[in-house]
Amino acid sequence: MEMNLVQIAIGTKNRAKTAAIKNIVNTFFDDVHFEQYSVPSNVSEQPFSNEETRQGAINRAINTLKSSNADLNFGLEGGVCEIDGLMYCCNWGAVALKDGTIISCSGAQFLLPEEIANELRAGKELGPVMDEFTKQKDTRSSLGAVGVFTAGLVDRTEMFEHIVKLLIGQYLYIKN
């Protein structure tokens, strides 16, 4: 466990992503100060490949660092990618350190039903499509598509917690 105050900057106001970062960071560090920032991803509203989704996470982390200069600056991004004509949800995270080091990793990928994939291919964004599909508001801040399409076994916070844990693990590895 770390004993010094660790400044954490979160490059989103999304509740599911913020909870994932706080839950994991608080597991590995004792004295933490969190700040949230609304920063751009500088990619499409609906990233359409692993590469674009990864770049969005990295951009959010870098833009958060520029806004905060915190010790750890997180960016998390959800997107979609197609493999063999099937559309999967893909998720990426990045953390930017004060010295300019960027660590990134991906997490869960899961198949989207064809009716959802067709909406995205037509130019819509997953969050609003899921709200319409579930007849709920702001599903991206709670269950998310992953919660809906895993029968509630994995929600969006839990999915992003795995990514944040990978990022923290890589940070601790390179720090030692």
Automatic annotation (TrEMBL):
UniProt key word Metal-binding: yes
Non-canonical purine NTP phosphatase/PRRC1 domain: residues covered: 11-166
EC nos: 3.6.1.73
Enzyme class, UniProt record, top EC level: hydrolase
Pfam families linked to this entry: NTPase_I-T (PF01931)
Domain of life: Bacteria
Reactions performed catalytically: XTP + H2O = XDP + phosphate + H(+); ITP + H2O = IDP + phosphate + H(+)
GO MF annotation terms: ITPase activity; metal ion binding; nucleotide binding
Protein's UniProt keywords contain Metal-binding: yes
Family from the record: Belongs to the YjjX NTPase family.
PANTHER family for the chain: NON-CANONICAL PURINE NTP PHOSPHATASE_PRRC1 DOMAIN-CONTAINING PROTEIN (PTHR34699:SF2), PTHR34699
Record's keyword terms, sorted: Hydrolase, Magnesium, Manganese, Metal-binding, Nucleotide metabolism, Nucleotide-binding
GO biological process: nucleotide metabolic process
Cofactor: Mg(2+); Mn(2+)
Organism, as annotated: Lysinibacillus telephonicus
Protein name: inosine/xanthosine triphosphatase
